[in-house]
Every structure is written in structure tokens, then in C-alpha cells.
Amino acid sequence: MHLTPDIIALLALVAFVAGFIDALAGGGGLLTLPALLAAGIPPVAAIATNKLQSTFGTGGAFLAFARKGHIDFRRFALPGLAALIGSAGGAFTLTMVDPTFLKAFIPLLLIAMAIYFVAAPKMSDVDRHARLGQAGLCAAIAVIGFYDGFFGPGTGSFFTTLLVAAGGLGLVRAIAHTKFLNFTTNVAAVMLMIAGGHVIWLLGGAMAVASVAGNQAGALAAMRFGGKGVRPLLVVMSLALTVKLLSDPANPLRTMVFG
Asked: Among 104, 175, 186, 195, which is least packed by CB within 10 angstroms?
């Protein structure tokens, strides 16, 4: 498909904002994926291209946290492997799904993500006793990894919530380890997407550069200020972009509901 320079620039700007938000609280994909779909990119290509830019952005934030010593690689080696395996399974499943189904299903998932961000509990920055053992934590992380490989938006927030509520980590340490896990899931998924030829390289590259810059700025802000005040913006933007997707008369979900 033909992408004009102004569309590429606009999507790169969205990637920067999403990267900043993603490093603070997760959920940046709630902005980038709907924006890609709204630009007319087919669902699998949109998810693949979103995964490419997200990999670079999350990787930048992960390195920023690692340099500051916020990541316990020994403790999270097995959870990282679980995340990788789960994501590879999700990405493979995505390539097997009918694109028409995805066009109808994605708006429902985006609405569900918005509801999650409204209802999710507030998180503390104080470390607590872990409620899940290593096996339980790995199983939960593998499930989230599968979701990330298949779809993606909200994965960072899912990981952060899990690590705070069940892993016993404080908010900043949970965000740091989320970047490690999310980088792992992104790498696994994007490798399968590249092998299948689904990535739009020019657009993905431009968004990747912007995402790295946004994630770096967001990681520094997270370490200094925490991730407060971001969720309302995610909810509003996600719902607005979902409305944009459903405004297309050709959307299968709209056709099914309204005839």
C-alpha cells in the first residue's frame, strides 16, 4: 500500500507519545495499533509493524532501566523464557486467523482494554511479599506473552499489574521488569512476523526511531516521578480511536450490529 510522508510523520508522532506513555504505565499500543488500523493498514500488517516499532522502543526503555540496576536478571530468567515461548505461540496463532475476523475482533479488544484501565487497582511503589511462586508467575507471564504475540495493546500494564499484585514488586521495579519481559515478547513475535513477510519496513522504521525516543524520555520520567496520571489519557485515546475504526462502514463488527 502507498503511504504518504505526512501519514508516516503523523504515525511516528503517535509512536513517540505512545512510547513515552508505555514506559510510564504500559498501554502505548492502545494508541499505535488503532492509529495504524485507522490509516488503512490491514490488521496482520498493522500488528506486525506495531510490534517492530514497539520492540525498539521497549528495548530502549529496558536498557535504560538495566543501566540503572533496576532489573534482577537471575530472578527473571525463567519468567523471561516463559514470556518468549508464550509470545511465539500467540504470533503463530495470529498468522492463522482470518483477517475479517480480526477486523471485527480488534475493536472489542480495545474496548476491553479501556475498561481494564478504568477498573485496574492503583499500585504502590513499596515491595511486598510475593503471592505467586516461580511456577505460577511463569504460567501467568506465558499467558500474557501469548496475548502480546497475538494482539499486544495493554501488555505492559498487564505485566506491571501482575508483578505488583502477585510478584511482590514495587511500582518502579515492576515497570523495570515489565520492560524486560515486554522486550522479550516483542522480539519473539516480531521475528515470526518478519519471517512471514508481514512488516511494513519504512513505516515501522520511522515509528521505531520515534518510539525509542519516547520510551527513553518515559523511562527517565518513570524513575523520577512514577507512572501516575497516564491512565485517563489512555482510556480517552483508546475509545476515540476505536470509534474511528467502527466509523468505517466496511468494518465487519459494525455491519454485524447495524446491518
From this structure: 195
Contact between 171 and 210 under an 8 Å Cβ cutoff? The reply is no
Please tell me the distance from the alpha carbon of residue 96 to that of residue 63, in angstroms, as a whole number. 33
Q: How far is CA 148 from the centre of its chain?
A: 7
3-state secondary structure of 129: coil
Q: How confident is the model at residue 37 (pLDDT cuts 50, 70, 90)?
A: confident
- As given in the structure block, the three cell numbers for residue 6 are 505526512
Considering the chain, what is the average pLDDT of its residues? 82
Q: Decide: 80 and 205 in contact? Cβ < 8 Å.
A: no
Place of cell 508516516: 8
Mean pLDDT of 53-70: 86
Using alpha carbons, select from 162, 184, 167 the residue that is nearest to residue 81: 184
Rounded to an integer, what is the distance from CA 154 to the centroid of its chain? 5
Q: Which three cell numbers stand for residue 121?
A: 487497582
Whether the CA torsion 70, 172, 215, 196 is positive or negative: it is: positive
- Find out whether 48 and 199 touch, Cβ atoms under 8 Å: yes
